[in-house]
Amino acid sequence: MHATNDSDSVVNISDIYNLSHDELSQNFKKTDIKEVEPTTQNINKNICEENLSIVIDELVNLYFKMANEGKEESVSKQYVLDYINNHKINLREIYHWLLNNPNDSNSIYLLGYFSYYGIGTDIDTQKAFELYQKGANLGNSISQYNVALVYEFGKGIGKDLDLEIYWYKKSADQG
Fold first, then answer.
1. Taking the complete model, does pTM exceed 0.85, yes or no?
2. Which residues contact 145 (CB under 8 A, 6 or more apart)?
3. I need a surface site. Which of 62, 119, 121, 154 has the fewest CB within 10 A?
4. What is the DSSP string of 61-79?
5. φ, ψ for residue 160 (rounded to 5)?
6. Which architecture characterizes domain 13-173 according to CATH?
7. Domain residue ranges of the chain, discontinuous segments joined by +
8. How far apart, in whole angstroms, are the C-alpha atoms of residue 84 and residue 92?
9. Quick check: 105 and 135 in contact, CB under 8 A?
10. Rounded distance between C-alpha atoms, residue 128 and residue 147, angstroms
């Protein structure tokens, strides 16, 4: 079928249909890509965040287990490092994730632990104590236990028997 325009040119209507169909198809593909890419990125981000959240909890539980078994600090640190290496965890990635989750008490505790032992950062016992204190105030029993240890041994802060007993009791009361 043919149609003519004002300048008497001949145009095939099926060509117009095909052109419009092709344009629509390309626009759909562009729209589809634009809509899918952010969704895929969000899904990957959520999976990564869920995995890191699980890793954080497992590392905290690992430390708790080591502390309950009376393991030396150096042994506990090595277990944490082995866990990180065995699970092929990017230390920089987990450290930044901890920095970006300042309201999760396990993340706060682990960031303090990393600061105390220089894992992924420089050793900073004062910063570690502040993070332990923040976690302790949020009710994190391992943070409370570590605050008590700091007061008992005076690492990074002066010894204080009353505060040591207070924080050991708070930690023990939580189990």
1. no
2. 67, 167, 168, 171
3. 154
4. HHHHHHHHTT--HHHHHHH
5. -155, 105
6. Alpha Horseshoe (1.25)
7. 13-173
8. 11
9. yes
10. 10
